[in-house]
Each structure stands twice: as structure tokens, then as C-alpha cells.
Specification:
It is a single chain. With about 190 residues, the protein is α/β, with parallel strands linked by helices. The chain is about 50% helix and about 10% strand. Helix 1 runs parallel beside helix 5, helix 2 packs across helix 9 and helix 3 packs across helix 5. It starts with a helix and ends in a 10-residue tail after the last helix. Bound molecules: shikimate-3-phosphate (S3P). The site of shikimate-3-phosphate has 10 residues, from loops.
Amino acid sequence: MRPKAAQYTLNQMTAENRSRKLVCLTGFMGSGKSTTARVLAGQLGWLNTDLDRCITEATHLSIPEIFSRLGEAEFRRLEHEQLARVVAESVAKQKPRIVSLGGGTIVQPQNLALLRDAGALLIWLHCPIEDLLHRCAHITDRPLFRDEASFRRLYAERLPTYEMSDYRVESRGEPARVVEQILSLGIFPGVTA
Ligand code: S3P
């Protein structure tokens, strides 16, 4: 039987051990989550976890391989399982951590609930759709980038979910500028941009 990762995690959490030092970057594909998280975590000296990488390491498959061989539903199950694992580890270790989520992670209500319950802060890297299209058109590892029309549709569908984030930062510019904006939000004690 598969482990019920999310249930396990939620049961482990109480108001006392919720981590306020779990900061997650969300946003549509191409918005720069992984790069920004790496630079941000480096500057803060925090742990950095890339959720897509956790999935590929756990399965020994690339993201496109998971989609083509196992299907999107299985990808979402794996994504949830890895998120639950990362959240549980963060709560247990209490070490501050930046997590770059996948573009569809918080669209799954159980993932958003898991993050909220853990007291995670969500930062939305917002980028105009034209820029995202331009960036993703050259990338081949995004199985959900099929064509422009479906890309625009998915973006519009997901906007209301991204808008539920705690903070919004413009991610159009260089990663260093995006990190500066995040540092100036005042959510990292003792750190200024
Ligand atoms: C997805 C985005 C991808 C990856 C998977 C699904 C999505 O991550 O998780 O292809 O649903 O938007 P990035 O946002 O890092 O491209």
C-alpha cells in the first residue's frame, strides 16, 4: 500500500511546531522559480529545495518522461507525495528553507492546504504572459507547453490560485533583481535588500 504522505504530515503538525521559515516560490512555468530560489537561498544561507528535482530524483525519470510514461495524474500524485515529504522534513528539522514549487503545485487544493497548515509563506513570481511565452517557447522540458492557445488558457485558469499567495513579486527582470525585491518584503528577519 502506498504511504499516505499528506495525512501523515498533517497529523504530525500542531500549532506549536508549525514552521514560519518555510518560504515557497510559486508562479507559472517560465517565471524563474528555480533560479530565483537558488540565488535567494544562497544569499540567505537557507536550504534550497526544488520540488521538480525531488520528483525526478525519486523516480529516476525526467518530468517529460513521467508525463509521457505515467501520465499527469501520476505526476500529480508524485508531486503531492514529495511536497508532503519536504514539508514534514522542514517541520521536523526547523531549518529555514526556500522551496521552488512546480507551476501547478498549488493549483491542487490538497497541496495548498498542506502548505497553509505548515505555516509556509507563498511568494508568487508574476511575469507577463508574453514574456512567459517567449521563455517557454525555447524550452523542451515542459510537457504542459503544447501550444500558445492552451498555454494562455492554462495561465488564465491558474491566475486566481496564484493570487492567493501571500506576496507577489515581478519576475520579469534578472534573478538578482527579483531576489532584491523578495528581500525587501521584510519577511526575513535582519535581512535587507
Ligand atoms: C508544471 C510545471 C513544471 C512541472 C510540470 C508541471 C505545471 O514546473 O512541475 O511540468 O503544471 O505548470 P515549472 O513551473 O518549474 O516549469
